[in-house]
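By convention, each integer encodes one residue's backbone shape. The lines below illustrate.
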Amino acid sequence: MDSTGPIVLAGALVGFAVGLTGMGGGALMTPIMVMVFGVNPTAAIGSDLAASVFMKPFGALVHQRAGTVRWDIVRLLLPTAVPAAFGGVFLLRALGDGDDVQQRVKYVVGTALLLAVAGMLARLWLDRRRAVGGAGSEDAEVRVRPVATLLIGLVGGVIVGMTSVGSGSLIIVMLMLAHPRLRANHLVGTDLVQAIPMVAAAALGHLLVGDADLGLAATLLIGAVPGVLLGSLVSSRVAGGAVRWALVVLLTGSGLSMLGAPSAVIVLGCLGAALLGAAVAVRDRRTARLRAAAGTADRSAREDDVGRTGPIASAPGARRLR
């Protein structure tokens, strides 16, 4: 049975999620290839990385034109991220050969997916803290932490090279933790730009060892490229928070499944993630209502004050007129 159409559709859905939320590319595509289409885990990783090489520049170009790329951070990430991503491929190969290594790769990918879930939760929490803190809590000119940034490139590069997961979910969270005052759009733009050479290095490594299927990567791109563009267009009109929580639930189930967890554990994990998302949504709506009520009360109080004192009393020089 020809699976070209379903693979194109899968690429479009993943691309749409990436364009809409800025996360979830490798974390979604690799498990879909393995669990839905039965692709060899190492081939799924290599093919996803090859496709990502052509997907990343679309978002990076938008941020470059908008001036939201911190090139000083990019220059510190790449010296460790690029060789680490390339070396991560051979570290993966060191796990063994044959069916045994494919099972081990599933475990590695499953662990990376759960790390991605933790990273997404951390990002949601940090975004909420920033929203409460207001615009003053962010700073486009924040000083770079060189050692921390080099370590982020090293850790993130190894994970991406081994699993294709993390370039849009783990690294950006580590950057947020290392530079908590950096503006959100600068974080996203910087992460997208540095991911291009890092993902390219990992894809090259997989090509050299024969893991990447360029035909599969091209098929994914047929759907992924328009999906990314469409997701970017509607990102301002759709509640991205709801989509992010859906990704958390999906990646939790995928990660547990890759690790060979029992069905009951997978269901409980997904249910727990869904309930957490619902609780956060309820709390956010309640907070929004309270803020709206407080704003209305404040406006009413100011109007009452003007009504009692009159416009002359509140004007400059009113005391002299009386």
Notes: The two ends are 91 Å apart (CA to CA). Residues 160 and 166 are 6 Å apart (CA to CA). The mean pLDDT is 79. The chain has twelve helices and no strands.
